[in-house]
Amino acid sequence: MVTNGLPIGTAAIAVAIAAVILTFGLPLFFKEYFPYQTLLKQKHGRPTVTTASYKGRTALITGANGAFGSRAAGIFASRDIDTLVLVDVMDCTGVKEKIEADLSAAGKPIPKILIWKVDMMSFKGCMGLAERLRELEYLDHALLTAGILSFKRKESPDGWETSMQVNFLSTALVALLLLPVMKPSPGNPNPPVLTFVTTFGIYPSSFTMSVPKQGSYIKRLSNNKDGMEQGHQYGRSKAMLLYFAREMAARCSASKTAPKVTINSADPGTAWTPLTNANRDQFIPRIITQFSAREPEFCAVALVNGASASEESHGRIVHDFDFADYPPFTKRKSGQVAQKRVWEETREELESKIPEIRSVYSMLEAK
């Protein structure tokens, strides 16, 4: 006897296989590559600022001219921040003037606002920050929002694919430069917080992130081609940064000489911004962004809360209202191995280009 051209036994097996795939395969696939439930939760999340006042404190924001960075700056300013440092390759005078106008209209005090231009497209450009940091007596909150999204491969002056340069290597360098100068202001009872920005895009990018047995892992990802690899380059560069952030947090905790700093990553969710507008011309990225986008203001609130989080957030990922798991591939033994490899390769590259950074690495190794 046959059913739709198949013997009954064969049809039953096919149905059973389909049932297994639907019951077990799809949930595993979504958990590994597309955590849609998390995206929906963020889309509908409406976080509020958890810190009532930043009176007497200093906050620094990279990418301060961007949609998230500029809004985060406005949030800090509206809650009595004492000193606000706006860092970007673009002139942040417009951001400063808007903050001052908004506060004046609301009858609120205007903080000291510093504008520092730093070009994160090269290591040399990042080093301009090292000199300026000496101006700060305290640094309570550092929020690293600077990033780029490009679907066409380009190279930085240092020879790295530009997403890998700005989103990962230069951000890692900036974090290392910030670490020694992070010191809480007298009115802040908590350790300073250094916050990296992470993204859902890491999950689908793991398709193209196999670790080579030999040679540099970072260079393999940087020496990519246009097409699928470049399409995932934002997520790939952020995955490298997530590895770096987690390892930096662990080493900071283990070091006897490193300052007491809370190091975490914050996922703001997705919004349509000048950065993500590049997705409009890409079918799948456009669909995903449209599926999960919310107002940029909520994304900025999530980042400010991450940069204000308690010591409990050290080494973790902060979402709107709770902590999130690391992507599955980063939690496996292979992910732990990859993390060490990313740390050592980054160190080798930065020390070869910026010898001054060796003192920070030595500080993190003091046991």
Protein architecture, described:
- The protein has 367 residues and is α/β, with parallel strands linked by helices.
- It has a single domain, classed as Rossmann fold, CATH 3.40.50.
- 48% of the residues lie in helices and 11% in strands.
- It has an eight-stranded mixed beta sheet with strand order 5-4-3-6-7-8-9-10, with helices on both faces. A two-stranded antiparallel ribbon has the order 1-2.
- Strand 9 and strand 10 form a beta hairpin.
Write the layout of secondary structure elements.
Elements: E1 2-3, E2 6-7, H1 8-33, H2 36-44, E3 58-62, H3 67-78, E4 83-88, H4 93-106, E5 112-117, H5 123-126, H6 128-132, E6 141-144, H7 162-178, E7 193-197, H8 202-205, H9 217-222, H10 228-231, H11 233-254, E8 262-266, H12 283-292, H13 296-306, E9 317-318, E10 323-324, H14 328-331, H15 333-353, H16 358-365
Parallel strand pairs: 3-4, 3-6, 4-5, 6-7, 7-8, 8-9
Antiparallel strand pairs: 1-2, 9-10
